[in-house]
Amino acid sequence: QQKVQQSPESLSVPEGGMASLNCTSSDRNFQYFWWYRQHSGEGPKALMSIFSDGDKKEGRFTAHLNKASLHVSLHIRDSQPSDSALYFCAASETGYQNFYFGKGTSLTVIP
Amino acid sequence: GPKVLQIPSHQIIDMGQMVTLNCDPVSNHLYFYWYKQILGQQMEFLVNFYNGKVMEKSKLFKDQFSVERPDGSYFTLKIQPTALEDSAVYFCASRGTANTGQLYFGEGSKLTVL
Fold first, then answer.
1. N or C: which end of chain A has fewer CB within 10 A?
2. What is the pLDDT of residues B1-16, one digit of tens each?
3. Which of A1, A3, A4, A101 to mutate to test the interface with B (most CBs of B within 10 A)?
4. Number of helices (H) and strands (E), helices first, in chain B?
């Protein structure tokens, strides 16, 4: 069973719009969540982490975590064409162990 | 920022041959990982490695796979013998000791098994 599920599989937003990506976990032991972004032909790069309930904002990116529902989201405001990429949610129990990745959301920002 | 270097970037081999993928992790990192990605889709965990030992491995880490980091040199993934289904992009990642655990990924090694 997939431990980390992401939705939607793909998403298109106009330039300047808001993109919302979702991630849910089936494992209540997961405490550490990361969002990674992968541009075509490159390795994933960490965007931001979230470990506590609530919102965390970094520039145009806001992550939200609800541990009770095991739900994590990423919101990108004022989306830019350079934000077009594959976005992964990754979760870990302790931060020292394996990070389980979701299948990813492919984001396309239309100029 | 910190960089992970992977060599080679692309390798084509015949089924049954051996292949070694090399990873030069971030210099002060102690935890190392290999992930497999097919067709630009899901990142599938293979193995993680710390202090000279495999800490955790997935079902994808078949008996034909092995990892090592002899004397602080490259962290390597060896596949012997290779199979057609091993064709994929393999990503190495490393991270430091903090349990906040950001992974730093290389650019990947694309393996094509014919």
1. N
2. 889 999 999 999 999 9
3. A101
4. 0, 11
